[in-house]
Amino acid sequence: MSPSDPALPASERSAIVRDSLGVGIATGAYGVSFGAVSVAAGLDVWQTCALSLLVFTGASQFALVGVVAAGGAPLAGTAAALLLGTRNTLYGLKVGPLLRWRGWRRALGAHLLIDESTAMSVGRDSVPAARLGFLTTGASIFVLWNLFTLLGAVAGTAIGDPATYGLDAAVGAAFLALLWPRLGSWHHRLVAVLAAAVALGAVPLTPAGVPVLAAGAVAVVAGLLRRPGRPGEAS
């Protein structure tokens, strides 16, 4: 934070922390599913935990163990994980200038750059608010995701289907909560509907995780095709 950045009011700080922790708990708890699935796919507990510590992007982790579970080569699983992780590069183009970190702070922030931490930082009114939302969300998910990964890996298949506990619904609900406030204009609503349609259409035709990339491509194309606003018109 630079000297010119205003301090956050206590009420705003509390609201950001509350919302960020809510997203962090809902998302981090789903790590139990990854832990159980990874061990069932043939990875041991330490390999499973290392993936959550070092990779730390759920879609890529599930893609890797999914390929391994299906009998694919580890290199093929790694390629699938890297493909899904490319979206984080696009997040960095937006979040980097927003947070204004340099040096080791920038490197640390890069490891916490995931869907949820990005969503909880963009759209904030100030740099301190964006940083707080990013750090609280990213750190809470990182801690809980790794703890629940260990729990799921140790418990293995004995823990049962995570859907039984509603954890799969919790993650989807968290994403909807992040998306909803950004649908304030007809343009955003139209892009959201088109992206959802493309993702649903891609589900039976593509590997897991690719529909998310296809939906993201819709938003990119829409942004490129949208005409610049008239002088004086808000972008």
Mean pLDDT: 80
Radius of gyration in whole Å, from Cα?
A: 19 Å
Helical fraction equals over 70%
Described by the principal axes of the CA atoms, the overall outline is globular
Q: Low-confidence segments, ≥5 residues, pLDDT <50?
A: 230-235
Number of domains: 2
The separation of the N and C termini measures: 27 Å
Number of helices: 11
Oligomer: single chain
Secondary-structure-based class equals mainly alpha
Q: How many β strands by DSSP?
A: 0
Sheet with the most strands, sense and barrel status: none
Approximately how much beta-strand content do the residues carry?
Answer: under 5%
Helices and strands, in order, run as: HHHHHHHHHHH
Describe the secondary-structure layout.
Blueprint: H1 10-28, H2 31-40, H3 45-54, H4 58-69, H5 74-99, H6 104-111, H7 115-119, H8 127-155, H9 167-179, H10 186-202, H11 210-225
3D structure, described in words:
The chain is mostly helical and 235 residues long. The chain is built from eleven helices and no strands. The chain has two domains: 167 residues, no CATH class; 45 residues. The longest helix is centred in the middle third of the chain and has 29 residues.
